[in-house]
Amino acid sequence: MAQPSGRSPIIYIDLHLVHEVTSPQLSTACEFPEERCGKPARTVATVDHNIPTEPRGTPITDLIAAKQIAALQANCKEFGVRLFDMDSAEQGIVHVIGPELGLTQPGMTIVCGDSHTSTHGAFGALAFGIGTSEVEHVLATQCLAQQKPKTMKIDVRGTLGGGRDREGSGAWIIGQIGTDGASGHVIEYAGEAVRGLSMEGRMTLCNMSIEAGARAGMVAPDETTFAYVKGKRLLRGVASGRRQSNTGAAWPAMKVRRLIAWWRSMRRSFLRL
Question: For the whole model, what pTM was predicted?
Fold first, then answer.
């Protein structure tokens, strides 16, 4: 269907990540009965921006931080949003726990009120940071109006030497194109040097896309991606729409085969947004 002139395309958001700084939008978006969170199972929250570095259980003396954390806890409880709180074993940096818990998967659209959401692009997901009003819109509708971005492919050939991996590879690329060289673009990182990176290395590379002015960074999923994701056993409620407990049960073999076959098919049309 043709897009009406002057209107932005509407995309569905598979995974919305929330932290204590973007918590107030929960109560705003879900203020009225008809505007309760559209898909609470597709929103996951954690505390990571303003929590103290002292051992767990240490009182929070920063009043603003304490208020933000309390607001997140109350909002998640009221609106049925899954929260990895300070006393949770799964609590961590919002851009890290998604991959660690198997929530981040190839082909997803992922957003969070933080520019470095591009980290998840390492899995072949379209992941980007959004602003305050957009957070509210996703919470209420699970959709987002977005203009089609420009695209850029960066093909890194050869091998990375001299410790030039992870941060080094990203810094080297930024040195070549400049800190605004990818402004308004989604970058696809390709080439044998990128393929040689671990998933952690790819996550760091995609994370640093923002430092080049990009909207997001992506790496097409491959066998390294599939092996990493297959190793994540549960907490897949976002994908299924159901809350699941962290029992460590293995994925059903048939589901794994079907998912990987679909993920492999993405390579043929990757980054044709």
Answer: 0.85
